[in-house]
Structures are given as structure tokens and as C-alpha cells.
Amino acid sequence: MSGKPKLHYFNGRGRMESIRWLLAAAGVEFEECFLETKDDLTKLQKDGSLLFQQVPMVEIDGMKMVQSRAIGNYIATKYNLYGKDLKERALIDMYVEAVIDLNELFMTHAFQPADKKQQHFATIVDKATNRYFPVYEKVLKDHGQDFLVGNQFSRADVQLLETLLMAEECKPDILAKFPLLQSFKARISNIPTIKKFLQPGSQRKPPLQEKDVPKLMKIFH
Amino acid sequence: MAGKPKLRYAKGRGRMESIRWLLAAAGVEFEEEFIETKEDLEKLRNDGSLLFQQVPMVEIDGMKMVQTRAILSYMAAKYNLYGKDLKERAWIDMYVEGTTELMGMMMFLAFQPADTKEKNLALMIERATTRYFPVYEKALKDHGHDYLVGNKLSWADIHLLEAILMVEECKPDILSAFPLLQ
Questions:
Q1: Interface with chain A: mutation pick from B19, B45, B49, B52, highest number of A CBs within 10 Å
Q2: Which range marks the domain in which residue A136 is found?
Q3: Same domain flag for A133 and A184
Q4: Which of A84, A185, B51, B114 registers the highest number of CB atoms within 10 A of its CB?
Q5: Residue A76 CA from chain centroid, whole number
Q6: What is the complex's ipTM, to 2 decimals?
Q7: pLDDT at residue B19 above 80?
Q8: How many separate domains does chain A show?
Q9: What are phi and psi of A65, to 5 degrees?
């Protein structure tokens, strides 16, 4: 019994990726059990491992945790990535929730029908550059500190970096108007645990390819 | 300056309703300022009150909080409705995410065109009775306590009650197979 958290999900980003990022940022080693077929999912559902019949599921500290937000909250608190008090937590939560909203848009892009794809892409870019990124740019500008909240590395920094990189995969120059986000990206990427996670061969997953979508649909539908 | 939390939203349930429930359960008086027109929303956006240009927004403890879950987490912790330790919080979070999904399905229903409404309603009822309610029924059965987590009233209980009542509005006998939820 290794004592390491064990992640149950398919071999791709989806709703598990933010959890991988958090664990990696905290320097926590974890194992992964990939669902490859519908039978794999059904087996987990039948043996009572999935509280609401869904993945992600993470075995950690004797619990079989489900619901990506609940898992993220637990890991962030346990590894001191959740601020020092309730007000810092509130700020972190606000920043993280918005990033989750933006991530949702990126995640669903691969599943868009061909005729809707271009418009969806335009929506993502518009929201990212007009609604979300300006907020984080301003936060960094206003306090002039290295991290988003409380002058200390937190979950908010990890999740924002994840999103910035995902955004750049979609549109490489998306951060052109956001100098502080660019330097933030460079700075957080250099944190040793993050740097390690960004190396090839880490447990970070690549973006979903269109050719993988049918296989995924078979598992979950 | 009242010191009471001030809620900004449309005059209806939507994403603010869970917040109203939580404050009420905690015995906290609050004020509401309703958004009636697009101008009302634009005004809030233009004066910088809405961090991501969206409501709900709650003025509380000197902050203008946005993002429903962030607001709910803050209140649950502030009013001691979030369990006594990290593990209890984990369970509360898991249960609340489940009821959030269920209530999300209900909220989504209202915006459906007539032809898909029927199908989505049936799906919601199926999920309620086969995916979500059995979990809470079992939790109550297994520990035999009055509350879902830690033998004490928490956010999870309030949220579940809200969800149950909401589903019963759609289908009054939905709890027929769930004596402990009743």
C-alpha cells in the first residue's frame, strides 16, 4: 500500500487535469489508473467506488473522493495552497472558480460540431481576453506581488498558470496584451515542482486530439 | 451602514437561491437589491462592482464577492456550517457538489424549448432517484444521525433540503422510495 493518492480517470486532461497540477505543484507523487473502455467505468460503478457514478475519483487518505471541486479543495487545504485565512480563501475561490469557467470552454472545444467550432473559438478568445485575463492582470498590477493572493504561492496561481498555457495552445499570442500575465507565467513555471511537471515525461496530459473523441464518447456514453 | 450582507441578483432563484438558504439557515439577516433591467446590470458592470462582469454578487465583510461557490464556501465557514475538520469538509463538499448538479439540471429545465423539456425532465427525475437521492438516503442510513456529516447541521443538509423541495415541486411523490430523506 503505497500511501500515494491514486487517480481514476481516462488518459487525458478533462476534469482531472487541474487535480494533477495541484498535486504536482505540492510535490506530491501520485499514481494513475486509466479507464480505457466502458467496462472499466462500469466496474468502478458496480463496486461502489464512485459516489455519484462518475469520475474523477481520487483515492486519498482512506477516502474515495469524487467531484473535482471537492478533491481540489481537499488537496489545496492539506498542502497549504489555500491561503492563510478565510478572506484569502475567499479570494482564491473567486479566482479559481472563474478559471474553472474558462477551462470549461477550452475543454468543450474538441467536442464542438464542425460548423460551430469557429464561433466557439471566437467566443473563447473573446471571453479570455475581455472578461478573465484583464482581471488577473489588474490583480497583479495593483499589488505588485509575485503571487495572486497573500504574497504566497497558492492554488490560484497553479490553476491560472494551467489556464494560461491552455489558452496559448489555442492561440499562441493570446497573452500579447498582458505583460504581467506573461511574466507571471514565466515566474510560476520556474517554481521547481511546476518546472518538473512541465518537463516531457511528466504526468501532465496533452490536449485532447479530435481523433481521440470517439473513444472517449464510447467510455462515457 | 447596515453591516448586513447585500445580495445583488434578479428577483428570482437562479444561482442566488442557495446563498439565500444558507444565510437564512444561519439566522443572518440580509438585504437584496434586485436587477430589474439591463441598465441595472450595466451600471454594476461599469462601476467595477462585478469582478467578472457577472452576478450573483454579495457585499459582505467589506468584499464584493462573486462566483456562487466562493460565496457559499465563505459563508459556510464563517457561520460554522462547514464541519469541524478537513475530512468533514471533504464530505460536505462532495455532497454539496452532488446536489449542485441536481439543482443545475432543474435550473436548466426552465430554459428548455417545449420539445426537449419533457425529455430533460424525465432525465432529471431518473438521475434524482437513481444517482443522487440514493446516496443521501444511504448516508443517513449508515450512520443513523440526524444530519449528513459529523452529527451536526451543515451546509450539506441545507443544500439537500433545498434540492429536495425543488424536485418535489416538479414531482410531488419523488421521495416515495426514500423514507429517511422524508
A1: B52
A2: 86-190
A3: yes
A4: B51
A5: 13
A6: 0.93
A7: yes
A8: 2
A9: -85, 140
